[in-house]
Design brief:
By secondary structure, the protein is mostly helical. The protein has helices spanning 16-21, 39-48, 60-81, 88-99, 126-143, 174-194; strands at 24-26, 32-34, 106-110, 114-118, 150-152, 161-163. A hairpin with an 8-residue loop joins strand 5 (150-152) and strand 6. Bound molecules: zinc ion. Zinc ion is lined by residues 153, 155, 158, 160, 171-173, 176.
């Protein structure tokens, strides 16, 4: 299980696309983690973020599609953070996810409730709907006002992204900041000793 210090890179709560990108990687000490490693944990991950209903069931195939979307989002976020050109396939994958489920709320009529609008997706489209929501979030994050604040953590071996809460923020967490400062101070002591 990933420790709780890892769950709060700024922006993760607001942006499911950021949460998805950060759901796998390496952290301090080179320990890898993957919060979507099985269909069951992937379902729990989506339920915890209110992205699917608690009774949703994801299959291996759905989990695979989410993991593939995550890789494409990482490609796009990395290109953005490093001012590089994203791969055409990642842009294409995001656009396919955007359009794989209706993004608007459908009109429903019920004799008791009258007209209502809600997302109504057959159970077989749970993953499509989630992917469309995440892709929508990623598209607005990458192209909107917050785009300039989207950054990758500068700590060595941390692969997380975050939304900068202030212009000079370099790390996804105090933990990464502390680790970098500790490493610098160690390096300083070493160089003083060898001088
Ligand atoms: Zn970090």
């Amino acid at each position: 299980m990933v420790d709780t210090l890892l769950t709060d890179a700024p922006g993760t709560q607001e942006h499911p696309s950021l949460a998805l990108v950060n759901s796998a990687g390496d952290v301090a000490g080179g320990r890898g983690y993957d919060e979507l490693s099985t269909p069951e944990v992937a379902t729990a991950w989506l339920v915890a973020r209110d992205l699917v209903r608690p009774d949703a069931v994801l299959y291996k195939h759905c989990q695979g599609r989410l993991v593939a979307l995550r890789a494409d989002l990482r490609d796009l976020f990395t290109a953005h953070a490093t001012a590089n050109v994203p791969t055409t396939s990642a842009v294409h994958a995001l656009n396919s996810a955007l359009t794989c489920a209706p993004g608007t709320l459908l009109l429903q009529f019920d004799p008791q409730a009258g007209f209502t609008r809600r997302a109504d997706h057959p159970v077989t489209q749970v993953v499509e709907h989630v992917m469309a929501m995440i892709a929508e979030d990623a598209a607005s994050l990458l192209s909107g006002d917050e785009a300039s604040q989207l950054a990758s953590c500068e700590a060595d071996s941390c692969q997380r992204f975050f939304v900068r809460t202030h212009a000079r923020r370099q790390w996804c967490s105090t933990r990464c900041g502390d680790r970098v400062r500790a490493a610098r101070s160690y390096a300083r002591k070493r160089s003083l000793q060898s001088a």
